[in-house]
Write a structure and sequence with these properties.
There is one protein chain. The protein has 220 residues and is of the alpha+beta class. It has one domain (18-207): L-amino peptidase D-ALA esterase/amidase. Helices cover 33% and strands 17% of the residues. The strands form two sheets. A four-stranded mixed sheet has the order 3-4-5-6. It has a two-stranded antiparallel sheet with strand order 1-2. Helix 3 (116-133) packs parallel to helix 4 (169-197). The radius of gyration is 19 Å and the shape is globular.
């Protein structure tokens, strides 16, 4: 990959939301022997700053709690508690899966104007979201990597904040920066969850919806 890949990706960008699941880079992804995928999530802070995340989940750990049959972190899709037989099937599959070398990669993007050091901090804190969504995580079988980018549209120091009329601008900016970091971690956790919940099995790997169909309201 070189600089031209980035230009081509930007030229192919679409304004409509990207689908989640076993598409693109997520087609061949696996998460503890289950179908992995690509997941996205986004939020808008009260000051109008947008924070978004994209994750390609190809992890040695699992996004699904074997005890409950539900994601460790709640996602955008409403799920039901899986049946006892589904939970048994899930546990049997997870215990039999032998993770190969894996990696979960992703990016957190924001419209805020951030320095390089602040972008590094955003990427670092996003790993908190990764750890909330996938367990175990950051193992010797994983090469987890998260990048952060900032478009610079919104200056955190100049945004109107009626709750901080007498607060120094530097404190206002720091408070919004902390909110942005928290949102980045939350979005990355949700993106990881969405990748697995929306995935459809292919190439012999069962998806979460194949192992726990009752979580989606399908009677067995």
């Amino acid at each position: 990959p070189d600089e031209s890949f980035g230009h081509r990706a930007a030229a192919a960008a679409r304004a409509r939301p990207s689908p989640n699941g076993a598409i693109g880079a997520g087609t061949g992804a696996r998460a503890r022997g289950m179908q992995g995928g690509v997941g996205t999530a986004s939020t808008v802070l009260p000051n109008g700053v947008v924070v978004s995340a994209l994750a390609v989940v190809n992890s040695a750990g699992t996004v699904i709690d074997p005890a409950t049959g539900l994601p460790w972190m709640p996602g955008a899709m409403a799920l039901r508690s899986p049946s006892a037989s589904d939970r048994r099937a899930l546990r049997a599959h997870l215990s039999a899966a032998t993770p190969p070398l894996n990696t979960t990669i992703g990016v957190v993007a924001t419209t805020a104007a951030l320095s390089k050091a602040e972008c590094n901090k955003l990427a670092s804190v996003a790993h908190d979201g990764l750890a909330r969504a996938i367990r175990p995580v950051h193992s010797m079988l994983d090469g987890d990597t998260i990048f952060a980018v900032a478009t610079g549209r919104d200056d955190l120091g100049s945004l109107v904040d009626v709750a901080a009329v007498d607060e120094p601008p530097v404190r206002v900016r720091l408070r919004w920066l902390n909110a942005l970091l928290e949102a980045g971690a939350d979005c990355f956790a949700a993106a990881c969850t969405n990748a697995i919940v929306h995935a459809v099995g292919n190439d012999g790997a069962p998806a979460y919806r194949d192992l726990c169909p009752t979580a989606f309201g399908h009677a067995m």
